[in-house]
C-alpha cells in the first residue's frame, strides 16, 4: 500500500498539469497568454492585500509581545492538565486563528521540546491541520475584495476553529494517547 501511495504522490502533479495542457490545447485555448494574464492579476492582488497582511502580522506580534499569551497560558494550565491536554498546545490553539506562520513556529517549538512522536506534537499537528487562520483570512481576503460586513464570518470562523480543536483533541486522544 505504501508503494502505491508513493507512486501516486510522485505522479499526481505531472498528470494534472499534463491533463490541463492537453485539454487546453484540444480546446484551442491560448495557454501561455492566459497564464501570463493570471500571473499579472496575481501580482496586483498581492499588492492590494499587502496592507492587510502587514496589519495582521503586527497584531499577532503585539499579542505575543504584550504577554497576553503567557497570561492565558497561566490561567488555563491547570484545567488543561486535568483534561490531559499538554499545556504547550494552548499557545498553538490560540494563535491558529490569527497566523499560520506563528502556529508553525509554535509547532516547531513543541516538536523540538517534546519530540516528533510525542502526544503533544501529534495533537499540535492535528490542530494545525484541522483549523483555519480565521482572522488572517478575514483581514487579507475580505479586505482585498472590499467586504465590510464580516461579523457573521468571524463568528462562523471562530466556531469552526473551536470545533476543529475539539475534534483534534478527541481524535488524537483516541489514536495517540497512551
Kindly describe this structure.
By secondary structure, the chain is mainly α. The chain has one domain. Helices cover 83% and strands 0% of the residues. It contains eight helices and no strands. Helix 2 packs across helix 7 and helix 6 runs antiparallel to helix 8. The longest helix is centred in the first third of the chain and has 35 residues. It is globular.
Features:
178 residues, 8 helices, mainly alpha, single chain, globular
The general outline is globular
Quick check: average pLDDT?
86
Poorly predicted residue ranges: none
Number of helix segments?
8
Proportion of residues in helical segments? over 70%
Strand content: under 5%
Quaternary state of this entry equals single chain
Radius of gyration: 21 Å
Q: What is the succession of H and E elements?
A: HHHHHHHH
Q: How many independent structural domains?
A: 1
What is the number of E strands? Answer: 0
Write the layout of secondary structure elements.
Elements: H1 2-26, H2 31-65, H3 68-82, H4 89-96, H5 100-114, H6 119-130, H7 134-145, H8 151-176
Helix pairs in contact: 2-7, 4-5, 4-6, 5-6, 6-8
Entry summary:
The protein has 178 residues and is mainly alpha-helical. The chain has eight helices and no strands.
